[in-house]
Structure formats: structure tokens, C-alpha cells
Amino acid sequence: MFLTILSIILTLLLIVVLVIPMGNYMAVVFSENSTKLDKVFYPVEKWIYKLGGIKNNTQTWKQYALSMLTANSFMILLVYLIFRFQGYLPLNPNHIAGMSPDLAFNTAISFMTNTNLQHYSGESGLSLLSQLIAIIYLMFVAPASALAVAIAFIRGLAGKKLGSFFIDLTRSITRILLPIAFVTSLIFIALGVPQTIGTSIDAQTLEGEVQTIATGPIGSFLSIKELGNNGGGYVGVNSAHPFENPNAISNTLQIILMFLLPAAIPITYGKIVGNKKQGKVLFISMAMIFLVFLSTSLYQEYQGNPAVTDMGISPENGSMEGKEVRFGIAQSVLFAITTTATETGAVNTMHDTLTPISGLLSLSNMLLNTVYGGVGSGFINIMMYVLIAVFLSGLMVGRTPEFLGKKIEGKEMKLIAVTLLISPCLILTGSALALFTPLGNQGISNPGFHGLTQVLYEFTSSVNNNGSGFEGLGDATPFWNISTGIAMFIGRFFPLITMLAIAGSLASKNIVPETAGTFKTDTSLFGGLFIGTVFIVGALTFFPVLVLGPIAEFLTW
Amino acid sequence: MEDLLMLLIIGISTAAMFGLINWCERKTDISGSEEKQ
Q1: Spatial contact of A278 and A270, defined as CB atoms under 8 Å apart
Q2: How far apart are alpha carbons A44 and A49 in whole angstroms?
């Protein structure tokens, strides 16, 4: 037990040590001025700019949003066609047929929105070409798109020009994602993860049967899967498969990669706006929520499952149902809380078998989308809650709310209000539709409170671009493919667009000089206010449905 | 036919987001030139 806790503490300390230089590095990457990095990366980037006709012109928020939306929608169309026609395209050694239209629709949107919700099994549903050209390509472009928007938002807050979407997108890939993914791919391969473009292997089992073992370029897939908070598995069972997570070191490395970029962005933010303390306050506030969720979840899992205890089995080993014996409870719970907090969606344990309170906390991580969140999109959501906290504190002290010297007025708050409402609207309406129609509720495998959680989890995971499945839900049907596809699309682009508009609005405002009466937003008091706002505004929105799902399940356990 | 339906949904969703961009522009009263200044 002591060693288990120590391993978790050491992993988290290692993450803290790594995210600080990472945050500072990203601030340099997205600097407006020339840096030493240009000498290394510009020779490659200039060819990309030349091929794409990209000019170094700063864009307005509208141009930035249009560029992001147009490029992303075009890629959805392109990848949709690849999935549909993969049966006729090369690099298909296992002769996998094209996806059905609704599944191709769901999968294309899923990977472009950084969700990676998978209603198919990777090893049997996708050709090598689809995995390499469509899936891995989007695994780089999707997080890079959201990271670019987050950086533009930070620049807007700092009163700077927003920059160019295409340049930020290119730099995100060439200077951050590709180099780190390349190095970590080599580490994963050294740890035993396969990297091949060969066909599947047919092996003879001890019973004399033939078993087909899927292989592929899993090493290169795995690094960007975690680094970009993508989470989609090369194989169906994701990081519970020994090829996709062979040992404790690969498990720890995956957890570190999931955290690396989302946890570094507050540091980048502090550096770009010239207030490092504010970045630290946000980082620590989110860390506190994370630690409370993690410790509660660990406690619950170590208590065991009463139903199993009633069968005369000792609860001393905790609840091991659905967990990999190789990782045990601690590494499984740390992975589950990390993957939902960072909106990655990779799994090394089946979340359907988590104890009700652990399931509730994983669900809450996704519903709040503020415990670091996914690359870029998480930070955008965090800043939405920060602006709400600033507005509420302004109302309490009777002053016009100010943030970084910019007045927060009605027009910004109107946009924040609609952004705040879009997530609950999509999640709750989608869940209600699924529960009240046979097309939706026939997929529920465990009727009752747990069944409601299965449906709620699926829509929460889709809207907030997590992509993990609670499993147990029969979701490979046209109803689920189309409904979650639409939810992923709107859940992704709506907040990115409205928050860019807010950035554009704030960028155009003059800075108000700080006075003795200005409410400081880089103090622990503000950190507390931020956490309070997240729980009062965010968590209470979903409290009724959580009572009907995991909380009712816990009370009747 | 099903392909057309899926492409139509993608098209409508994208068009809705374009509409959102225009709506946000009206709400914030920010034109491009103003922001550049």
C-alpha cells in the first residue's frame, strides 16, 4: 500500500517537474517575435507555408474562427471518404471492408474533434491506410487546432493580435507534437510496443485453435494518442491490451503524456499575459480538484464491491473487477481519473465496472471539463469559468468586473452564458432522447440506475470530446452513431468559436489601470472563488441527473 | 442515399457554426478593422 501511494506521488511530482519547462517552451513557440527555435524548425515550416499559400498575416477573430472551422470541416469530409472506400484503397492487407455511412460519419467527426469515441474495434474495423493516413493524421491536426485557438484566446486576453490560425496550427505540429511524439514512440517501442506494417499474425493456441493477433504501427500511434489527448485505441480494448500498454513504465509514461500539454498551458498563459502568478493559481486550483477526486476514487476502489464480498470473497484486495491484474487498483484508478480529467479517453480499465462513486468522479471530470481538460479546449473552458468567477466577484463588490485590465461587459457575458449552456443542453437533451426512445434505450445492457449512467456517460464523453466509453452500452447502431456525431461536432466547435469572439472583443479594449480597489485575480482567494464557481455553476447543473444515476446506484449498493 | 444524408448533416452542422460566427460578430460589435487597431 505504501509503495502504491509512493508510486502515485512520484508520478504526479514528475508531471509537475515536466510541465513547467513545457509551459515555458510553448510560450516561446507561440511568441510573436523571432526566436532561436526558428533556426531549427523554420526550414521545414517554410515549405509547408509555401505549399499551403500561408502568409504571416495576423487574423481577426472572425477570420481565425472561419479558418479553423473550414479546415476542420474539409478534413472531416476527406476522412469520411477514406473510411467509406478503404476496402478499395491500398494498404489493406487484412481485406477490411469500407465502414457503413453512419459509422464513417461518427468516426470522422470523432477524430477531427479530438474525441476519439470508437464505435468500432480498431483491429477489425480499419485498414492500415485508414489508421495511418486518416486516424494518425487527425490525431495531430485535432489537438493542434484547439491548441492554436487557446493560444489565440490568450493573446486576445493579453491585448495582443490573435495571430494566424494556419501558422499556429503548423507550429503546434512541427514544434510541439511531432518532436515529442517521435521521441516517446521510440521509448514505447523499446518497452515492447509493436511497430510494423505487416499483416496480423495467426497463432496456434494451447487448445489447438487458431487465434489472429492484430499488430501494426502501434508505437507511433500510442505516443500521439496520449500526447494529443486523443485516446483512441489501435486495438479495441485500448491501453488494457499488452501491445498498447505492456508494463508499469509504459502505463506511467502514458499518464505523463496525457498531462503534459493540458497542465502546461496555464504556465504558458501566465508567461504570455505577463502574470505568471495567475497561471500558477489556475494550475494549483485544478490540481486540488484532481487530488480530491483521485484520493476519493482510490478509497472507494480499495473498499471492494459489497456484492462480491457477500459471495464470501475477501474485500482486502479491493474491487478488481474490470481491472488489469498487471496494473492493480492504484495504476488503474490513476489512469481513469487522468484520462477523464484531461479529456483523453484512453482506458486501461473498464469504467463500467468502477464502483459507483469512482464512476461518478470520472463522469464529473468530463462534465466539468475544467480539471485541466483536453489540449486547448480544456483551457478555453477553464477561462470561461474564470470570467464567470470575475463577473460574480465584480457583482459582489459592486464594481465593473475587470480581468487583466479589461472590463468584462454584458456582451462578453452573453456569449459566456450561451457557451455555458450548450454543454448541458446537448448532454441532457441527448440522454433524454436516448432514454425515451427504443432506438436509444435498447442499447442499455444494465437497466436501472446504472443504465442511466451508461447513457449519460456516452453523451458526456461525446460532447466534452473525451471519447472514453463506459462500455456495456450497445452503441454501434445508426442512432448512437448519428446522435453522438452531432453532439461531438457542436460540443467541439461551439465553445471554440464563442470564446474566440470573446478574445476578439477583449483584444479591442483599452487597458484600465489597476487601482487599490481592483479585485486581484492572482491570489489564493481567487483560486478558491474559481473552484467554488466551477462547483456551484458547473456541478449543480448536472446534480439532478447524477442523483438519478451513480448516486442512486451508490445508495442502493 | 445514406451517404448523401451523412454529408447533408455535416453540411448543415458546418453551416450552423458559420451562422454562430456571424451571430457572435453582431453580439460583440467587433468588426475586423476595429480589432486590428
Answers
A1: yes
A2: 9
Q: How far is A65 from chain B (nearest CA, A)?
A: 7
Residue A283 has pLDDT above 90, yes or no: yes
* 3-state SS track over A315-333: HHHCCCCCECCCCHHHHHH
| A308: exposed, middle or buried (Cβ count in 10 Å: 0-12, 13-18, 19+) | middle
Q: How many domains does chain A have?
A: 1
In a domain, A206, yes or no: no
Characterize the bridge pairing of strands A402-403 and A210-213: unpaired
> Which residue from A73, A109, A411 is facing B29, i.e. has the nearest CB?
A411
Give the three cell numbers for residue A27: 510560450
**In Å, how far is B32's CA from the nearest CA of chain A?**
5
Residues 6+ away with beta carbon under 8 Å from B11 = none
* Residue A418, domain member (yes or no): yes
Inter-residue contact A452 to A435 (CB < 8 Å): yes
ipTM (interface predicted TM): 0.91
Task: Answer whether A501 sits within 8 Å of B2, measured CB to CB.
Answer: no
Residue B26 touches partner A, C-beta closer than 8 Å? no
Q: What is the pLDDT of residues A27-84, one digit of tens each?
A: 999 987 778 888 888 899 999 999 988 887 889 999 999 999 999 999 999 999 999 9
Contact call for B2 and A102, based on CB within 8 A: yes
C-alpha–C-alpha distance, residues A380 and A263, integer Å:
13
Cα angle at A55 between A49 and A59, to 5 degrees?
125
Q: Domain range spanning residue A360?
A: 2-196+213-555
From chain B, the residues in CB contact with A412 under 8 A are: 28
Is residue B35 scored above 70 in pLDDT?
no
Residue B34 has pLDDT above 80, yes or no: no
Which pTM was predicted? 0.94
DSSP assignment of A32-44, as one string?
Answer: SS--THHHHHHHH
Percent with pLDDT over 70 in chain A: 100
Q: How far apart (Å, rounded) are the C-alpha atoms in residues A24 and A157?
A: 18
Which H helix or E strand runs over A24?
Answer: helix A2-29
> What is d(CA A90, CA A84) in angstroms, rounded to the nearest whole number?
13
Whether A525 maps to a domain, the answer reads: yes
* Helix residue ranges, H only, A303-376: 306-309, 328-341, 356-368
Q: What is the Cα–Cα distance from B35 to B24, expressed in whole angstroms?
A: 14
User: Do residues A351 and A362 lie in contact, with contact meaning Cβ atoms separated by under 8 Å?
Assistant: yes
Of A100, A104, A415, the CB nearest to B24: A415
Task: Tell me if A21 is assigned to some domain.
Answer: yes
pLDDT at B30: 59
Confidence of residue A447 (pLDDT cuts 50, 70, 90): confident
- Closest residue, chain B, to A108 (C-alpha): B10
